[in-house]
Amino acid sequence: MIVRFLRGAGEAEDRAHAGVVVVKDDYIETPFGRVNLPLEKVLDIMCELGFEEVLVYSDGAREELFEVVEWETPRSVIEKLKRSGRSKKCGAIAMFVGFVRELNEGRRVIRLEYERNDELYKKKLEELKKRVESYPGVEGVEIFHRIGKVGAGEDIVYVAVMGRGRKDVWKAIVDAVEGMKKELPVWKKEVFEGGEEWL
Predict the structure, then answer these.
(1) N or C of the chain: less Cβ packing under 10 Å?
(2) 3-state SS string over 55-68?
(3) What domains sit in the chain, N to C, each tagged with a CATH number?
(4) What pLDDT does 24 receive?
């Protein structure tokens, strides 16, 4: 799902768009009415419901928002694989979820910050997915890596491999995760109590 963050209350034509969210001080206006949930939870729900694009309007109260971000949940990644035409001959999906640890080397982690070279990332991601999809019995691979600021306890990455049976996905999921860590041009800065460091 693509999320576009915009300033203001939303233009009339945009607010008619099914995927519009308006962040207020005390609540969030959604296509389903007003809710008192964190924005991240609202985006998770919309992603799992199949929204492909969401416009998020804010009056500027949240300074750390990006203009455009990709958003996925474990369920949305799995559903992408299941909706593919290749899923009919499959019976297994293995998934890896990476999240931000709260303690690292004795330091309390506040957040991680990720950057990437978009063009090179997309190229390397496709190469990795094609390589893993060439394994015998593997019929699909999905990899999602968040960019920007990710707080302690929040998910960073989802890697899912769909195969004809369980034995087809074990080696593939390990190789996909290791390939993601070693081959994708993503850089990480750890912000911890008392400092920060590029890792």
Answers:
(1) C
(2) EEEECCCCCCCCCE
(3) 2-68 (no CATH), 72-198 (3.90.1170.40)
(4) 84
Backbone angles phi, psi at 78, to 5 degrees: -65, -45
State the pLDDT confidence band at 63, using cuts at 50, 70 and 90.
very low
Q: What residue has token string 């297994």? A: 92
Q: Own/partner pairs for 138-141, CB < 8 Å, 24+ apart?
A: 138/162, 138/163, 138/168, 138/169, 138/172, 139/84, 139/86, 139/87, 139/89, 139/90, 139/163, 139/164, 140/81, 140/84, 140/86, 140/87, 140/90, 141/172, 141/176
> What type of residue is 48?
E
pLDDT at residue 21 in the model? 86
What pLDDT, on the 0 to 100 scale, is given for residue 7?
66
Residue 9, C-beta contacts closer than 8 angstroms, at least 6 positions apart: 22, 57, 59
Cα separation, 69 vs 66, in Å, equals 7
Residue 39 has pLDDT above 70, yes or no: yes
| 152 in Cβ contact with 102 (< 8 Å) | yes
CA 150, CA 99: separation in Å to the nearest integer?
9
Kindly indicate the confidence band of residue 60, based on its pLDDT and cuts at 50, 70 and 90. Answer: low
